[in-house]
Amino acid sequence: MTDISEFSQAILERMGQAAVRAGRDPRDVRLIAVSKGVGAGRIREAAGAGLRVFGESRVQEAASKARELGDLNIEWHMVGHLQKNKARAAVEIFELIHSVDSISLLELLERHSGACGKHQRVLVQVKLEPEDTKSGIAEDKLEGLLAAAEGMKNLRVEGLMTIPPFFEDPERSRPFYRRLRRLAERYCLDELSMGMTGDFEIAIEEGATMVRVGTAIFGERPG
Ligand SMILES: *Cc1c(COP(=O)(O)O)cnc(C)c1O
């Protein structure tokens, strides 16, 4: 067995155990293998090991991998900040965009999806810690953004995503994940993209439907 297949099996097992601990069905949590900085050859290997969904954080990088791996039956997700001038290319590549953070970006995605005859699935990235430098919209702007999305025909907001501040102790992510789940419940949104290598089990205990794991599958990223 290769490292990638061994590591991804171990992650899937830990995901399943976390789900069971929380009284959830393990099938309700998907693994997004975050492959930013990982070459196409290793993504092919990961697909061979059974991984189906890959998360990228740069549109250009994803576009070139998607071209090179066009023969594989895999799904690409955008997990990084999406610049407005890349919205059109993003619509062409990504099944799900996790990182919508403004009404203007939403409007661009709606327009490009319409032009491509595509129905674009998106999540809204929420920034739960105001002084944080990461992208995402503030909690109090969410309602306005969701109201704007309701009138759109070519895209659907399926849920929320967040990246909590980094903590050594993963338990400290828990209150953030709990808050995101409550927000999703308030607006009747089904999907919760939360949890990374250091804290995905906590996120699953708090209701994650997708975890975004890179390092634990592919190893440390250079740089
Ligand atoms: C890189 C990245 C991840 C994966 O992080 P790891 O700690 O390597 O698992 C998850 N989500 C986003 C948005 C990322 O940019």
Quick structural summary:
With 223 residues, the chain is α/β, with parallel strands linked by helices. It is built from nine helices and nine strands. α4 packs across α5.
Task: Explain this structure.
- With 223 residues, the chain is an alpha/beta fold.
- It has helices spanning 3-21, 40-48, 59-68, 87-93, 103-116, 142-150, 174-186, 200-205, 215-218; strands at residues 30-34, 53-56, 75-78, 96-100, 120-127, 137-138, 155-161, 191-193, 210-213.
- Strands 1, 2, 3, 4, 5, 6, 7, 8 and 9 form a 9-stranded parallel β-sheet that branches.
- Strand 1, helix 2 and strand 2 (53-56) form a beta-alpha-beta unit.
- Helix 4 (87-93) crosses helix 5.
- The chain starts with a helix and ends in a 5-residue tail after the last helix.
- The model has no long low-confidence stretch (mean pLDDT 96).
- Residues 34, 36, 57, 79-80, 163, 196-198, 212-216 line the site of pyridoxal-5'-phosphate.
